[in-house]
Amino acid sequence: MTVRLDADGIIHLDAVCGIEDAEALLRHLLAVPAPRVDWRSCTQAHTAVIQLLLVARPCMDGPPKDSFLARHVAPLLGTAASG
Amino acid sequence: MNEFIEQFLIEARELVEQGTVELLAAEERPRDTAAIDGAFRAFHTLKGSAGIIDFAAMASALHVAEDALSDVRSGTQPITAELISHCLSCLDQVTQWLDVIEQTGEPPADAHLAAEAVVALFAQAAAPPEVATPVEAASILDAWLETFSAAHPDLLAAGRTALLYRPDEDSFFRGEDPLARFRDLPGLLALDLIPRGAPVPLAEIDPFSCRLSILAVSSEPASVLAPSFSGLSGQVDWRALGAPAAIAAAPSAQLLEEQIALLRGAQDEGFFGRKAAAVRAAVNVLRAEGRDAEARKLDALNESRADVSPLIDALRRATSTALEHATEEPAASEPAAPDIAARSLRVDVERIDALVRLTGEFTVLKHAIGHAVATAERGDTQSLGPLLKAQYGVLDRLVSDLQHAVLNIRVLPLRHVFQRFPRLVRDMSEKLGKPMRLVIEGEETEADKTIVEALFEPLLHILRNAADHGIEPAQDRAAVGKPGTGVVILRARRDGDRLAIDIEDDGRGIDTARLRSVAVERGVASAAAIAALTEDDAIDLIFAPGFSTRSEVTGFSGRGVGMDAVRTAVERLGGSVKLESRPGHGSIVRMTLPFTIMRTDVMTVEAGGQVLGIPLDTVVETVRVPRAALSKIGAAQAFTWRNRTVPLLNLSSAMDLSTASPSSSDALVVIVVLAGQYSGLEVERLGERLAVMLRPMEGLLAGLPCAGTTLLGDGRILIVLDLHELQL
C-alpha cells in the first residue's frame, strides 16, 4: 500500500503512487477534517493523485524524495520545498 | 550507379507521389482516416528506405513530418492546410535530393542543412502563433504568462517556449499520466497546474477524471519539446517566447539563434565541444545562404580562440541580416514543374508473361518454316503452298498478338500525368490567393506512354491559364453570385480510337472583344480581318503565335509562352485543341488526341493508282452507288444513303493524284464518319484490312495530311490518311 492513513491521522504517500491510489487517497482525505499528507518518501505521483491534493489542499509534509516533485510540484501545493 | 541505388530511386519517387496524393486527399477530406494513414505510411516507408542507403539527413527530415502525421492520426493535432504544406515541402526537398542522387549517385553533401530547414518548418508548425490557437487557450496562456513573468522575470527571459497542455478528461482511463510527460521535459524551467472547470467540492470529485491544465516554460524550442507529447490525448498549445515573428520569417535566423543559445550556456567542461559545434553549424548556415564572407569571419573569430562574446555579437549581426534576407525575398521559389518523363516503366507481370509466351510460339514457327524450306529444297512444290499458307496464318496471328502485347506495355493510365496536378493547383491557389479546387475525372483512361507523357506541359499551361486568367478572385465571384471556390475540371475519356481531354473552369470566360483589340494591337492580322471573324474564330485568336492578353507576368502564366505552344504540342502528337467560352460562366479547352501513335487498323483502298490506308475505326461501310444516283450540288457531289444526304469526295482528286476516268457505272464509295459527320470517299478499288505500325511523317513530309506510312508486303509504300486533316 503506497497510500496509507496512519494511526497519527497523517496520510503517507510512499514510493510510486499510481492511478490506483487516487481513490484510496480521496477516501482518506475525506475521512479527516483537516488532513495532513506526508510525502517525504514519495518518488513519483500520478497526475490523478496530484490533482486530488490540489483540490483538497491538505497540509503537506515535505519535501518529497523526487526532485521533479520537489522542485516543480511541491510549490504548487502550498508547501515550500523545505517545509 | 549501382542497382541498389537505382531501386531506391524508383521506389522513393513512387512513395513521394503516393505521399503527395494521400496528403491532398487528406486535406480535401479531413475525416478520411485512410488518406492520413496512407500518407503516414508513405512517409514512414520513405524514411525507412532513406535509412537503408544511410542518408541520415533525409531520414531526419522525414521523421519530423512523420511525427506530425502521427499526431494527426492519433487525433492530437487537427489537419491544417499549413501542416499539409509543410509535409509537401518536405516531399519537395526529398525530390530534390533524389534528383541529385540520380545525377551523382551520392546524396548531396549539404543535405543536413536542408534537412534542418525542414525540421525548423515543422517546429514553427508545432508552435503556431496565435492564429491557430483557439482563443480560449491563447487567453489562458497569455494571462498565465503575464502573472508568471511578474513573479519570475528571470525564468521567462531564459525560456524559449511556453506551453499549455490540456489533457482529455478521460486521459487517465487511457493509461496516460499527463504530468509524467513533464518529468523529463527538456529544459523545463517552470510548471504550473490549474484546475479546469467549475470548482468541485472534494466530496464530489471524480478522482479518475482529469480536470487539470498544465502550463510550463522550457528553455528549448517547441521542436524539441513536441516529441514528448506525441501520442497523448488532449491539446497542446505552444507559444514561442522571444521573437516568434522573426523565427517564422527565417529558418536560418532561427538556426543561428539556437547557436547563440548554445554559446550562452554554462561554461562547464563540455563547453568547448559545444562551442565548436555551434560555430560549425553557424558557419554552415551562412555558407548555405551564400554569405561566405561572414562565414569566414566567424571561422576566424573561432580560430583566434577569442572570448565567446565577440562570437555571439557576430552571430547576432548575422541573425538580423538573415531576417532582412528573408523579407527581401518572400519565398521566391516557384514550385518546379516536375519532370514528367517516366524514367522507367512499371509493367504488369502478366503483360511480360504474354511476351514470353509469344517468344515460345515464334520459336515453334521458326522450326516450322525450317521444315518448309527443306520441303522446297526437295522440290516438293505441291505441298509447299498449303504449308506456307498455314504458316502465314500462324505468323499473322503471332505478329498481331506481338503488336498488341508490346503496345500494351506502353499503355499508361492518364493518372500518371493527372496526379501531379492537384498539388500544382493547390500551390497556384495559395500563391494567387484564389480559392480553387481541381476535379479529376477519367484518370484511369489509358493511352500510349508517349502521349501520356507529352501531355504534361500543355495541360499544365492550360491549367495555369485557367487559374490565372479564368478563375476570378473570391470577392469578384461573390459579387456575381458564384461560389467562392473556383472549380477546374480535368476530364479524360476514350472517344473511339481517340483520347478526349477537356479542361473546364467556371471562371469569367473569354472576353472576345478584348481578344480582338489585343490581336489588332499585336498585329496578329489586319483590323478588318479580325473584325470580320466570327465569335468562334475570335476565340481561336488565343492560339495565335505570341498572343497573350495580359502584359503583366504572374508567377504561373504569362511568361511569353502562349496558348500557341499548347496547340503546337498537341498537334505534334497528332491531336487538335480548341477553346469554347461562355462569358461569365467559364471556358472549356477541348483536346483530342490519338490513343496511340504507333498502331492503327487500316483498310487499304486504291485511288489514282496509289494505295492509301483509311483508319478502320472511321469506316462505317462500303457501298456501290450508281452514278445516276449522284446529284451535283454546286461543284460538289452528294448521294442519298440511308435517308441522309452524304457528301461525296473523290479521293484521288482530293489527294491531287491522277484521276482515272470513271469507267464503271457504279461509284465505289467508302462511307466514313468523322465527328458525327458522314462523308463518302470515292475510290477505285477496295483492298484489305491491315494492322500497321505507323512511322510518323518526318521532315518535309511532316505537313502532309497523313497519319504515317508503312511498307506493304510487296514493298510498296502505304500512306495512311489522317481524315481529320483531309478537308472533307
Radius of gyration of chain B using CA atoms only: 35 Å
- Provide the structure class of chain A: alpha/beta
User: Architecture of chain A, CATH level 2?
Assistant: 2-Layer Sandwich
* CATH third-level topology of the largest domain in chain B: Heat Shock Protein 90
Walkthrough of the structure:
The complex is a heterodimer of chains A (83) and B (728). Chain A is 34% helix and 29% strand. Chain A contains three helices and four strands; from the N terminus they run ββαβαβα. The model of chain A has no long low-confidence stretch (mean pLDDT 82). The longest helix of chain A has 11 residues. In chain A, strand 1 and strand 2 form a beta hairpin. Chain A is an alpha/beta fold and 83 residues long. The relative contact order of chain A is 0.19. A six-stranded mixed β-sheet of chain B has the order 14-18-19-17-16-15. Chain B has a five-stranded mixed β-sheet with strand order 6-8-9-11-10. In chain B, strand 21 and strand 22 form a beta hairpin. In chain B, helix 1 runs antiparallel to helix 2, helix 4 packs antiparallel against helix 5 and helix 20 packs antiparallel against helix 25. About 5% of the residues of chain B have low confidence. At the A-B interface, helix 1, helix 2 and helix 3 of A face helix 8 and strand 2 of B.
